Amino acid sequence: MILSDLLVQARAQLDDTALPTLWSDPDVTGWLNEAIDEVCLRRRGILDSTTPSICSLAITPYVQRYHLDPTILKVERVRLGSNPVPLKKFTMGLMDDRVEYWDFPYRAGPPQFWFSDQDNKDHLVLVVVPFPNIADTMALSVWRMPLDCEYLKAPKDTPPMPFYLHRGLTDWVEYRAYDRKDAETYDPARSDRAYKRFEDRYGKRPSADALKLMGENALRGVQPQYF
Question: Out of the domains of life, which is the source (predicted)?
Fold first, then answer.
């Protein structure tokens, strides 16, 4: 669906088709963009392996930690440019338990494993093991939030997620519209019903702790091979 279609659907759902409308197009468009953010948080709506600024990292010899774009929620796959076989996904805890001195640069070599960590601002950091001993590149597959250029602005813009996730976006618009403290439009019961429909379709919003665990792959690991 494109923005103009979603605006028509939203107006019909809001019973707001007569002029002058109760809610402006900028307001409804803003709520649609909020809904896109919510879907990405609840359903990991954007899987990306091709955007160079997001999915390609240069490896520097003897550098083990790489800061990721802040739009990334979770790294799914990592592959070196020099090797068609993806690196093995891991966790810091399992590295500590099973591989001695994995974070010592004197054990440098071709990276075999990766895991996600966070910096002091809670931004995701990709860690490769062992320390790389040559320059290379990494190709990533990630789940991410929208880029600024992907939000709905022009009439023919389309949400940056699979088509089957589009139609329910207007439930979020209805929730936000009737939750506004306005004597003419405030209807908390209708707002709650719209929110429940949105939640039933896309799932509950994860907590900050749940998002952190997802980003760090904290619940998953594989058996390592010593290097």
Answer: Bacteria
The residue among 55, 109, 107, 54 whose CA lies nearest residue 78 is 55
Stretch 175-204: mean pLDDT: 93
How far apart are alpha carbons 1 and 105 in whole angstroms?
Answer: 51
Distance CA 145, CA 157 (A): 17
H-run or E-run covering 123: none
Q: What is the pairing mode between strands 113-118 and 46-48?
A: unpaired
Short-list 47, 51, 46, 26, CA closest to 36? 46
Q: Residue 44's closest CA among 167, 172, 143?
A: 143
| 41-83: pLDDT as tens digits | 998 879 999 999 999 999 999 999 999 999 999 999 999 999 9
R_g of the chain, CA atoms, integer Å: 22
| Residue 75 DSSP one-character state | E
